[in-house]
């Protein structure tokens, strides 16, 4: 029996897990296999990342071939072909909206990188007073100090001191009274973007570097942007010369039925943070895409000097690049983004059938993502959803919960029969939990 105690597990109720472990030992396509040989239907794409399904042969073979040929290449002052090929592929995916890519190893690192690029960009442009960062309440931007500073989920922040100085937050857009059980984007709430005008008035635009938001806020419980909200943020940022950053760690690579949320919504940010689906979750990797003009602004120093003092030992790692290139090939060859778009209505109708379950107080959806919000038990916030999570696992379904919200984000290879099964099991288990 494996000794479970030495491993301090992330974002996990360690004592509860170690008393009754939930161990996964294999995976294929839409399912995990447990250590007691049970099949678990994956309704979360692992952790929002396995968009093409598990253990895809094409990716496995690309990783094996790469690691046997070039296992590592230093990214500082050196290069390898895979990183340049991948950067070109990512740029081409976005129809000219972005022209350069900076590689990281996770969504958290992508956020830290984007924030640093934003502040440094203003400095090299001669506007070094622009250092203030604006996030949003209930936002999740990873676990680095920059990410939790601009993030707005209180348990992620309260243990870690005063965080970064010079950070402010927009209000979140969640409103059950106005928007409960909306299908797709809510009609109410675009005006909340105008709160950015108040922050500009308070601090002056000359002090503000960037605004960062998730186009669809995932980890806080799937909050869908109101119609016109993202467009309004873009307009205000343009008005005051503020960079707009989209954190697309979750929405990137087909989750909404388009390559990125910037394509889905038709709103062009200045920087985009990605990770997760870039390698189908097989190898840690992230990337920051920047619009034309940002990279060039740094290219005024003497040619032998470093233009941006930032990077990681594993930036553009050869094996990660091989996994990402194989992943992009699968997305294209199997038209998985289009598949997600075509399934979105079926998915929407299925998850909204949970509206009639007594403790369900909201259902939210967009693309192949959904949030089912449950009424909290008196004095026990989060318990109803966690009980549902445990029972789902015992009966063969993996879901994700945040507070009393169930978040669903299945692999893009999902079929209608899987959607039916997910909803049937949730109806059954929610009635059991009561």
Structural class: alpha/beta
- Indicate the mean pLDDT: 97
Number of strands: 15
Strand content: 15-25%
Principal-axis shape = globular
Description of the molecule:
The mean pLDDT is about 95. The protein has a seven-stranded mixed beta sheet, with helices on both faces. Strands 1-2-3-13 form a four-stranded mixed beta sheet. The protein has a four-stranded antiparallel beta sheet with strand order 11-12-15-14, with helices on one face. It is α/β, with parallel strands linked by helices. It has helices at about 15-20, 45-50, 55-70, 80-90, 105-125, 145-150, 155, 175-180, 195-205, 230-240, 260-265, 295, 320-335, 335-350, 385-395, 415-434, and strands spanning about 25-30, 30-35, 40, 100-105, 130-135, 165-170, 210-215, 245, 270-275, 285-290, 360-365, 370-375, 395-400, 400, 405-410. It contains 16 helices and 15 strands. The longest helix is centred in the first third of the chain and has 18 residues, at about 105-125. Helix 15 packs across helix 16. The two termini are about 35 Å apart. The protein is globular, with a radius of gyration of 21 Å. A hairpin with a 2-residue loop joins strand 1 (about 25-30) and strand 2 (about 30-35).
